[in-house]
């Protein structure tokens, strides 16, 4: 990996040699820390704590429609009310207590990657999860379909200690004077039908995780989503204990990220069209984003109080929920992170949302049914009850396609060279009062 000390001009220049590696990068502060997960446990409690960035009104019942009503986003672009989240990290001290490891948000990358450049924006209602909370070892035999690349390569860690250690798919080193950077690559190939499936089979990874082609089963190319979270392990006074994620994982193999789309579709459409393959990284350089940029996003959209009364911050006696700490090499079990006699998460009416057959993912317009009424969005505390949704109304594409128009076959004008094996931009990060703000020093793997 190139040195952090390389001049920005050299680093940026390397980005455009061979493979087009253009992207835009969102700096985000935290919006919420709670034991909720509106994708996996809609309407109820999650098995473990997550830290959220994005829409300020995130709660257990969040949907695309409710996210759009958020008063603000804790990320730079206010026309993006998406929700982005990852598990919290704690340090288990030698006396058995747990201390929250601070992080100040995340950097979210939207990268122009893949062999097919006719990228499709995330449709309204789209969500996905990358990573497996149960993993406790590197599964070298579980490969991406049609590839020799292990799926385990979707997550990795970088110990920022000035020595430029090779990134690892687990927490190989945690004594990091500048923090431990956790990284999650998301699936960029979609089946064009399902907005979500509980097993995430509606999406698939690029053949080289961060680049390559899509399988025939998932032919619709999405923009490549990539998270970076800088955990400030250097702020913790070590005493012979161990770092452990909120889902009981001491290895890091079980790192995962969740994404719930909340973009204004026309803005995301133009962003992809104008900046996915020519972007300079900073969102301020992408014209469609300028009208809603907020440089004071962390001040104007502060972290909200936890939605559940269970302690999640600071020093706590135990991991929130009913978590059994596991260190592998055997994978964890669902029973290791669920309460046998605790509150069982409720389910919403629909487990899956499906695009009608015949419209293979390119003609979207999702509208709220006219019978659904919504008041002002909840600001803090308990979520506002949502009306019962009709599957036939919510998931049918309106004939007029009012305003979302997914006809995205743009001319291919960019010439691409050979793929980069681990070509994710790796910026050097600094932390501050405005959340997680990477520098412009983009590193080439």
What does this structure look like?
By secondary structure, this protein is mainly beta. The protein has 5 helices and 22 strands. The longest helix has 11 residues, at 265-275. The N and C termini lie close together (5 Å).
What is the strand and helix layout of this fold?
Layout: H1 8-15, E1 23-28, E2 32-34, E3 50-54, H2 64-68, E4 83-87, E5 89-92, E6 98-100, E7 106-111, E8 127-131, E9 155-159, E10 180-185, E11 189-190, E12 194-196, E13 203-204, E14 220-221, E15 224-231, E16 242-245, E17 256-260, H3 265-275, E18 281-282, H4 297-300, E19 315-316, E20 353-354, H5 391-394, E21 429-432, E22 435-438
Parallel strand pairs: 1-18
Antiparallel strand pairs: 1-7, 2-3, 3-4, 4-17, 5-6, 5-16, 6-19, 7-15, 8-17, 9-10, 10-15, 11-13, 11-14, 12-20, 21-22
Quick structural gist:
The protein has 445 residues and is mostly beta strands.
Task: Tell me the β content.
Answer: 15-25%
- What's the N-to-C terminus distance? 5 Å
Model regions low in confidence, pLDDT < 50 over at least 5 residues: 1-20, 342-434, 436-445
Mean pLDDT: 78
The proportion of residues forming helix, as a percent range, comes to: under 10%
Structural class: mainly beta
Helix and strand sequence: HEEEHEEEEEEEEEEEEEEHEHEEHEE
Radius of gyration: 21 Å
- Strand order, main sheet: write it out: 9-10-15-7-1-18
What coarse outline follows from CA principal-axis ratios?
globular
Total helices: the number is: 5
